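re: ur question from earlier - yeah i can do the single chain one, its not a big deal. heres the input i used so u can compare w yours
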Amino acid sequence: MDQNLSQYRIFHAVAQTGNISKAARELYISQPAISKSISKLEDSLHTTLFIRNSRGVQLTEEGKILFRHTQTAFEELAYGEQELYRIREFHLGHIHIGVSNTLCRFILLPYLKGFIEKYPHIKITIESQSSIHTLTMLEQQRIDIGLIAKPENSKNLTFFPVMEIEDIFVASPSYLENLALREGHGTDIFQTGNIMLLDKHNITRNYIDDYMSANHIEANNLLQVTTMDLLIEFARIGLGIGCVIREFVKEDLKNGQLIEIPLGNPIRKRTIGFACCPGHTSKALTTFIQFCCPTVTPSVI
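and the output i got, formated as tokens:
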């Protein structure tokens, strides 16, 4: 298309009003400028668009064809402007979040509750999956943002920390009492107890495996569990010694339902936060990040 949009806008205004002077008043352009623009458009299209008469102008058959298309085009543009206005005024948008079941329940849900109350018109889609899968989807730009433990190599992601977590081993008082009766006091619980860990598809499991290897800890009786929720429940009912996140069992530790197993070297804390690909943030996503991380400035996102 060799013609610029302004020529079509002038043509459209003249066609609607049927009069060059009226179109000039609507567009705040001089009549000579209107006439010149129409002439240039006709020359470039090698056709006559208007028939001039004493009462104004009238569309030719070719002009009517072009007018139908400009009518559709300018209606679509007006619709697009209205959509942008609605997005700005009503905070419309769509955010696609990847998160594990554990982090969704214990960390994301409280953020979502407050966010939805404040921005009810923003659509939220949750991909409930392992953090490893979330990282893959972020790299492939199939989701907008992920809630994950900070990866060792995050150079391709922008990371916004929200909290620190600490992994600990816990068991119910009854399980520890029965283990002591069966194996004797002072027994190596990792050798004699039932050790419960998340399965190997989980980033937390990889982190704990590295810790145990570095500290020469071996588990003779290992039970793999798919979710942190189940792992905590199994520990509560006395099925074994579970590696859980301290922040998720604070009440259990406080009321004595679970007991923390002391370790020679505590497991190093991890940082949980939101990660996204730099340069791929929408207005809705920026709003979400600033809600969850109030100290973040828009220039960082």
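Residues 61-90 form the longest helix (30 residues). not sure if urs matches, ping me
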